[in-house]
Amino acid sequence: MGMKTKDTEGEILRAAEQEFMLKGFDGAKTASIARAAGVTHAMLHYYFRTKEQLFDRILTDKLSLMGRSVLASFGTPDLPVLERLKRGIASHFDFLVENPDLPRFIVNEVFSRPERYEVMRENISRIADGLMQQLQREMDVLVGRGEVVAIDVRHLLLDIVCLNVFPFVAYPLIEPVFGPVAADRSQFFEMRKAENIEVIMRRIKK
Questions:
Q1: Phi, psi at residue 83, to the nearest 5°?
Q2: 98: Cβ contacts below 8 Å, ≥ 6 apart
Q3: Is 71 exposed, middle or buried (0-12, 13-18, 19+ CB in 10 A)?
Q4: CA 194, CA 206: separation in Å to the nearest integer?
Q5: Residue 55 and residue 13: Cα distance in Å, rounded?
Q6: Per-residue DSSP letter, 101
Q7: Are 153 and 137 in contact (CB under 8 A)?
Q8: pLDDT digits (tens, 9 = 90+) for 178-206
């Protein structure tokens, strides 16, 4: 019975994610989510009382997944810091490849509603604060050795996020403008990932 319950909740969450990403919070319908999940409307409300509760669960799960993915790469102390940076950039980019609609979804849905922005901020700052302090200490050691230029890690992470996120937010504009370069979507994203790593490494190395 427990397994069945978990399966049902998972089906609802998968259907809800598709509905929210496609139609946004306001356009999403719980009846459509229930239909896609293969459950009754009443059953959906048994698991998630309101559309808001379902939305918050999807958002929190996605942010936690992104946080764990990035933290696992940037925050592995048994690797040199520059290697971790490369892995972190790649890991964040790969997460976006798996969730290409998420950046636009966050911009559209979260920033327009202060209470959701607060949920997101709490989720991200819990992970980011410690990570940034640790990275700054390690980068400062490399600066002292003359291996990298002095840099505020907050700006470095912002550079990484901007470089990684933009192709996904702007792909509908990039594809017609850049034509053949962007025609094969998966090949284009692989090229961008390699380019972003190269740009960041050149930015910090002496």
A1: -65, -40
A2: none
A3: middle
A4: 20
A5: 9
A6: T
A7: no
A8: 888 888 999 999 999 999 999 999 999 98
